[in-house]
Description:
It contains 1 helix and 4 strands; from the N terminus they run αββββ. The chain is an alpha+beta fold.
Amino acid sequence: MLVAIVVIAVAFPALLGLHNRNLVLVGNDQNLSTATLLMRQLVAQVELQTEFSDYGNVSGNFDGYPGFRYELEISHTSFDELRQVRLRVLWDERHHADLLYYVHREPES
């Protein structure tokens, strides 16, 4: 009986620690999924623009998603019809998701 209590006393805190870690990992995964979907939304907005906007650096918050914010930078490349887009979605002091891609527009005739 005493051996069983000792085994439980040793195993129970370890199991609680593992469960707590799993909860933290699930929370991080949910935040990363949310950040990825928000990033996808911003990419669609940039790609739907009919012409390039030279707004350089833009940052803001997402409506309906407290704690999430973004930083967007559109910069020139050596080609007139091509822009480099850097996008970062942040959700606390330590976590963020980054994306770097290029957008092409045909020159106006």
